[in-house]
Design a protein that fits this description.
CATH architecture of the largest domain in chain B: Orthogonal Bundle
Distance between the termini of chain A: 66 Å
CATH superfamily of the largest domain in chain A: P-loop containing nucleotide triphosphate hydrolases
Number of helices of chain A: 18
Largest interface: A-B, 27 and 19 residues
CATH architecture of the largest domain in chain A: 3-Layer(aba) Sandwich
Number of domains of chain B: 2
Strand content of chain B: under 5%
Helix content of chain B: over 70%
CATH topology of the largest domain in chain B: ABC transporter involved in vitamin B12 uptake, BtuC
Largest sheet of chain A: 6 strands, mixed
Shape of chain A: globular
Number of strands of chain A: 24
Radius of gyration of chain A: 25 Å
Number of helices of chain B: 16
CATH class of the largest domain in chain A: Alpha Beta
Structural class of chain A: alpha/beta
Structural class of chain B: mainly alpha
Order of helices and strands of chain B: HHHHHHHHHHHHHHHH
CATH class of the largest domain in chain B: Mainly Alpha
Number of domains of chain A: 3
CATH topology of the largest domain in chain A: Rossmann fold
Oligomer: heterodimer
Number of strands of chain B: 0
Distance between the termini of chain B: 8 Å
Largest sheet of chain B: none
Chain lengths: 509, 348
């Protein structure tokens, strides 16, 4: 037996739900073990059991062959289990070192020996190729660096087994590559890693073995070398999943949206959109590709009325909608699936019923002379929730308690149901599992087929390539290239997104 | 085992019981009989029709000040300025009441309306500052309380009267007082204001839960960004929320102005109607019906406590401590919620 972690026959219940049942997880010394499952399948619950945050109703946990009872995270720490949460737990105004040693600081007399701490952090960082500056402040370093600080935090506390909870969700593609390297070097040094994820490509790339759970049940554990993406996907979802959306060639018709020489500043007053021109026609999907922070968000916000533009025009059906209120924009036939669904898309403390009519609550039949008609609101909510397969206990459940995928399906249902002429979809599948992604992609293509125009913003090249009929690449506030999936590949897009063409132009000038 | 709704009802009830128990404990320590003490409290609040009348009279402004705080809470704002808005409503209703004479059917509604408008105007300022400049409403409303207190004093002294400490009695046509109610309750100061207060609760419930406006107010209170995204005018809803909250507070002032007292006298400090409204709103779970019950409890304690020194010999200071303990437990309901949930967990 060379398992470092064994979780056998784990069962964990919450009031009304069984979050884990019959789940087995056996992690070998020195392997990267993937824990795969849809959103809400019970991956995080299982890891919280291992980390001592929850107590299981049934089952055994063995660490290095010894039966243990993990009653709280301190016990887990002492057993050499470290967890890197999806949402970092760092203090912004502290340095890297201060964050890492927090709670177990090396002491000299009565003071913290920060020199000694820095030295230790530096050594650890070099040993695993993490390359962090011990003296940098957290607020000044990138998200990828912050994640490394979290990893260092666990290593500093002597972790042998690292749990990484969807670590790539917040990273850019180059950062993901670096993280992969870091994971490999950790394993080389004898650590074991449990990687929680629903991204199949990552599993194929870095993992040795993979345990799949579905709806709380342990399904199977496979050697990654013996399986493939299709098998993993169907194990995870419980049915066949297609990865490329079936799509007939676009039949673009009239021009719906026309953006001309648009300039937009962000909230700090920095110009983020610098003269963008863009057309979207009925019956086509236009994808905006680009690395986050190159003005895409500001462009979308200007089109949907959330942000004022400085100059240029935005017209829909020839009617200028630049600097109109969101209400005016919505009523002129634009639907908006916002990038940040918690901030903009939903009122999390409202029941689903209210959220399903968030854009239409004041219109007939939901309201008459200022009085709400809850009967028709409930009917609408029920029918949308059913049609878009939003899994919620009832229409009175608060949006906050739904999983991300179901929240997103609700938003998409609400926005598409209004029969808009133009659908602006910003990162519509961020953080979702393959099943939900497939559903949303199909819906967008279906709407295109009905002759609607779709403007898609995505940071995922797969998604851009898969859905778009035309692609506009944004770099540094400008559309630097317009192309189509047939005329380009991910490599070229990547270069365009990195501004290679821009530099060329500047070189020529 | 417990549904959420049950927990929400249990919490205030347990809070009150714990408060009463610890009050009893304090009385025991100091050598007073808690049973006698609470009997005196009970008699002082409900012992006969006079006391009952006084209790209901005291409950009336609490309902309205509680509604004012609760309304702001429900729409994401913390109105600590209810106290000042009460002064403004009180003053406005009295001013209308003493300035002229008119048939009651015009005069009385006008006095009530004036109170609501004055409170609303006092709420408008912090609402506007919050909506347009992002100034936190708590700071503005606290300062506005002092401005209200001293402006009202100055107006009474120098505008309404000639250096008197108190206005004249309001005209009978502008008064909520009722001989019939007074006679019914052995000449307590009970007046028709409780009708206004109950009607106010009904309005709050209807406005927030049944109207498009209420949908927007609640939505903005929960999430300004999503509300903006959904096409709501966020600034207007913030201002409106403070205005409506202020109007409720102004009405609470009218209950004193043209109900209980019938005049405005120069004040040296706060009346606490507004500040107690915060506790009333919290205890009532910021719901209209809850506020009515919570105000009833506060009114009962306030009036009943007056009887404890005379009937049970408990000194006034100790009475204040006992009352404060009850409110303390009620206000710290978070702790009780935690205990219930813990108990719930272990019960399984």
């Amino acid at each position: 037996m060379d398992y470092v972690i064994e979780m056998l026959d784990i069962r964990k219940e919450f009031p009304g739900v069984v979050a884990n049942n019959n789940v087995n997880l056996q992690v070998k010394q020195g392997e990267i073990h993937a824990l795969l499952g849809e959103n809400g399948a019970g991956k995080s619950t299982l890891m919280n059991v291992l980390f001592g945050l929850y107590q299981p109703e049934k089952g055994h946990i063995r660490v290095k062959g010894k039966e243990v009872h993990i009653s709280n995270p301190n016990v887990a720490n002492d057993l050499g289990i470290g967890m890197v949460h999806q949402h970092f737990m760092l203090i912004d105004t502290f340095t890297v070192t201060e964050n890492i040693v927090l709670g177990s600081e090396p002491k000299k007399n009565a003071t913290v020996d920060i020199r000694q701490a820095e030295k230790q952090v530096k050594e650890l960082s070099e040993q695993y190729g993490l390359n962090v500056d011990p003296r940098a402040k957290i607020r000044d370093i990138s998200v990828g660096m912050q994640q490394r600080v979290e990893i260092l935090k666990t290593l500093y506390r002597g972790a042998e087994i690292l749990i990484l909870d969807e670590p790539t969700a917040v990273l850019t593609p180059p950062e993901i590559k670096e993280l992969t390297e870091i994971m490999r070097s950790l394993v080389r040094e004898g650590k074991s890693i449990i990687l929680i994820t629903h991204k199949l490509k990552e599993i194929m790339e870095v993992c040795d073995r993979c345990t799949v759970i579905r709806k709380g049940e342990g399904i199977d554990t496979l050697n990654v070398s013996d399986t493939n993406v299709t098998e993993l996907a169907s194990l995870m979802v419980g049915r066949e999943v297609s990865f490329t959306s079936e799509k007939t060639p676009a039949e673009p018709k009239d021009k719906y949206l026309s953006v001309v020489d648009l300039h937009v500043k962000d909230s700090r007053g920095v110009e983020m959109v610098k003269g963008v021109n863009l057309d979207v026609h009925a019956g086509e999907i236009v994808g905006i590709a680009g690395v986050d922070g190159n003005g895409q968000t500001e462009l979308i916000e200007a089109i949907t009325g959330l942000r004022k533009s400085d100059s240029g025009s935005i017209t829909i059906h020839g009617q200028n909608i630049a600097n109109q209120t969101p209400r005016k924009v919505t009523e002129s036939g634009i639907s908006h699936i916002p990038q940040d669904r918690h901030k903009f898309g939903l009122v999390l403390d409202f029941p689903m019923r209210e959220n399903m009519v968030l854009q239409t609550y004041y219109q007939n039949p939901f309201a008459k002379s200022g009085i709400l008609n809850y009967k028709s609101i409930s009917e609408k909510a029920k029918s949308l929730i059913e049609e878009y397969d939003v899994r919620t206990p009832s229409i009175f459940t608060h949006a906050r308690s739904l999983s991300g995928g179901n929240q997103q399906k609700a938003i998409i249902g609400r926005e598409i149901d209004r029969s808009p002429d133009l659908i602006v979809a910003a990162q519509p599948t961020r953080g979702l599992d393959v099943g939900a992604i497939e559903f949303i992609h199909n819906k967008l293509i279906e709407e295109r087929g009905k002759g609607r125009a779709v403007l898609l913003l995505s940071f995922e090249l797969d998604e851009i390539m898969n859905l778009s009929d035309r692609i506009a690449v944004m770099f540094d506030g400008e559309v630097v290239a317009e192309t189509s999936p047939e005329d380009t590949d991910e490599q070229e897009l990547g270069l365009l997104m990195a501004g290679s063409k821009q530099q060329q132009k500047e070189g020529d000038a | 085992m417990f549904s959420n709704r049950l927990v929400n009802i249990l919490i205030p009830i347990i809070s009150v019981i714990l408060g009463l128990l610890s009050g009893a404990f304090i009385m025991l320590i100091f050598g007073y009989n808690p049973i006698q003490g609470y009997a005196a409290l009970w008699n002082g609040a409900f012992g006969d029709l006079y006391f009952l009348g006084e209790t209901i009279r005291q409950v009336t402004p609490y309902i309205l000040s509680g509604l004012a705080v609760a309304f702001a809470f429900r729409t994401g704002l913390f109105n600590i300025g209810v106290e000042g808005q009460v002064f403004m409503g009180w003053l406005a209703s009295v001013w209308v009441g003493v300035s002229f004479e008119a048939p009651m059917i015009i005069h009385l509604p006008l006095a009530i309306l004036a109170a609501a408008l004055a409170g609303a105007a006092w709420g408008f300022v912090p609402g506007l500052l919050k909506a347009k400049l992002g100034v936190h409403e708590v700071i503005v409303t606290i300062m506005m309380n002092y401005i209200a207190l001293y402006s009202a004093n100055a107006i009474v002294r120098h505008v309404i009267t000639d250096n008197a400490d108190k206005t004249e009695q309001v005209a009978p046509t502008a008064s909520l007082g009722s001989e019939w109610l007074e006679q019914l309750t052995y000449f307590s100061r009970l007046h028709y204001g409780f009708v206004v207060a109950l009607f106010g609760a009904l309005i709050m419930w209807f406005l927030l839960n049944k109207t498009v406006r209420g949908f927007e107010l609640r939505s903005v209170g929960f999430n300004k960004d999503a509300s903006h995204y959904a096409g709501m005018n966020v600034s207007r809803n913030i201002i409106l929320s403070m205005v409506i909250s202020g109007a409720f507070a102004g009405l609470a002032g009218a209950m004193e102005g043209i109900g209980t007292f019938g005049y405005y006298s120069v004040k040296s400090g706060f009346t606490n109607i507004g500040f107690d409204g915060i506790a009333v709103a919290l205890l009532g779970g910021n719901a209209a019906i809850g506020v009515i019950f919570a105000a009833f409890l506060f009114g009962t304690l306030k009036i009943g406590a007056l009887n404890m020194p005379t009937q049970a010999g408990v000194p006034t200071e100790l009475v204040e401590i006992v009352i404060a303990l009850i409110i303390f437990f009620v206000a710290s309901s978070y702790m009780i919620r935690w205990l219930i949930l813990r108990f719930k967990k272990e019960g399984k």
